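One-letter codes give the sequence; each number marks local geometry. A record appears below:


***
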Amino acid sequence: METTTAPDDREFYAKLKEEIRDAAPKLGIDKIGFASAEPFGELKQILLRHREQGYESGFEEPDLDKRTDPALSLERPQSLISVAIAYPSKLPNPPKSEPGAYRGIVSRSSWGEDYHKALRKRMAALESFIKERVPDARIESMVDTGALSDRAVAQRAGVGWSGKNCATITPEWGSWVYLGELVTSIPFPPDRPLTDQCGDCTICIDACPTGALVGPGQLNSSRCISFVTQTKGFVSDELMRKIGNRLYGCDTCQIVCPVNKGKNWTHQPDLQPEPEKVKPLLKPLLTMSNKQFRERYGDMAASWRGRKPIQRNAVIALGNFRDASAVPLLSDVLLHDDRPVLRGTSAWALGRIGGAEAREALKEAERTEADPEAAERIREALAQLAGNDERA
């Protein structure tokens, strides 16, 4: 992208860049990089193929031009700034699941304060820092929900490389980082992009519970547990079994990454986890009202889809734990909840747990259930119990 910056201006912006880099830690930013604002032409072709194969999640910006051309976010952009803040990967003194008191788990990306808020605070401080020095600078900040690809900007700006697990991996902080970017009218000298350092390693691809990583850097979102836990509808039997006790997100492909080994970051106070919130008891989740859910979990990124997905996933977890003590509660959900997805998922869980009480609840529900999908789940659960009896 051409610019008419004079030689003395280039010196000023190079110096400003170093001032920003020096100030970043005080602003709560762990790594920062600078890149040109040229369109991401190669990325657009990758995203087109991704869409053609049906791998999108539906949560992305639908306009591929906006995702790959900074000029559609800010008129006449001159450079991009990528920022990363590191978050923890280990839970201190984690509460343990026990029979009758089983727990779910929330992914590390939702530990502490909602990362959207945490990033916005830091990026607002960075924007103020820049505008104090260049008052007429035009800046557009983006966090996750922005149009541009966070990972593409981070790689071009030398913050990290795009790993085979579809995460940005930084040499210093691993992939336990939140990303944001600023599109600016200031022509900062660009940093050197980071090239792939995964080499021949395929540990993350091999470890993916559902095979959602269909190739290096290629994710079929419809099979990704992180995506599935954020949906609101029915989930297939196969994927429910794979979800385990995950309430939100999935960290498997990051946990197994060799670069992340031994990395845990505790220096950002607002991102530290509250053990009882990130590994909560499952049964109390099912009786929470919307108000109670917002009061308890509303400051977490995991709350963005509301309580329904979390409650559905709690039902799935109770089924996977085969928690017999949960049968009365699951039976109540099956027979009285006004949400078909919760009723049908409870039927699945009761079918997994089994027993006379579960069977009676399912038979009663079979007589009264009006929703076709929930009714099908009830019939499948009863068939599973009948099959178990025959094998006994």
